[in-house]
Amino acid sequence: MTFTIAIDGPAAAGKGTISKAVANKYGFAHLDTGLLYRAVGARMLDGVEPIEAARTLSQDALEASNLRTHEVAQAASKVAAIPEVREALVDFQRAFARRQGGAVLDGRDIGTVICPEAEAKLYVTASAEVRAERRFQELQGKGSDLSFDEVLAEVKERDARDSERATAPMKPAEDAVLIDTSNLSIDDAVAAAIRAIDSKHAAG
Ligand code: CDP
Ligand code: CDP
């Protein structure tokens, strides 16, 4: 059995949280595709040329401990605008999407480019202020001294770069179900995702 759930949307919208809960509920494997771009971004910060870094990405690079930082997020969105970097990561993501047993992939272009044939597509979003507040809280928990305004500026800069790039820009697929989590608890956001997926599953 193959069944692909594509979950796209901007930073801190709740994609990862929803993806993990949904993968757990259906017993599917989960791939956070942002981690691929973060791993390439981290290698670029270490001085490796990004296309080369994408072509030689290893499991070790994906398990590096510094991938969740603010600097790496910015580097990720820069390397993500390079067509050859994206191209080097396509086969791995497509194979994951069609693996036996079902798969959930979250990112920016899963429903539009990586797996347009996905059985269920969600586009998870929230206002920039709400998303920045979530990231701000997470960063504070890690001891960061960035201000809310700095985090908000970073979120907006990354949104603009991700949605304005020529190759695989961030945007909802035409057949994606939109979920705005601005005023939803995590439980309510997960419930909305499961309702949307179950209705696609029943229809298919
Ligand atoms: O994967 P993505 O960057 O889209 O977001 P995430 O890592 O799932 O969520 C970012 C933060 O928002 C986490 O700290 C979640 O616990 C929180 N969150 C929330 O407060 N309310 C939601 N409805 C969804 C996520
Ligand atoms: O966790 P958060 O939503 O902040 O970011 P992420 O999902 O880890 O993605 C980091 C960066 O990778 C994004 O800002 C995008 O530039 C890029 N990305 C992408 O271009 N395509 C994807 N499928 C996933 C991430």
Automatic annotation (TrEMBL):
Stored InterPro entries: Cytidylate_kin, Cytidylate_kinase_dom, P-loop_NTPase
Main enzyme class: transferase
Catalytic reaction(s) noted: CMP + ATP = CDP + ADP; dCMP + ATP = dCDP + ADP
GO MF annotation list: ATP binding; CMP kinase activity; dCMP kinase activity
One BP annotation, GO: pyrimidine nucleotide metabolic process
The entry's keywords: ATP-binding, Cytoplasm, Kinase, Nucleotide-binding, Transferase
Source organism, top-level taxon: Bacteria
Compartment(s) of residence: Cytoplasm
UniProt xrefs under HAMAP family: Cytidyl_kinase_type1
Family designation: Belongs to the cytidylate kinase family. Type 1 subfamily.
This protein's name: Cytidylate kinase
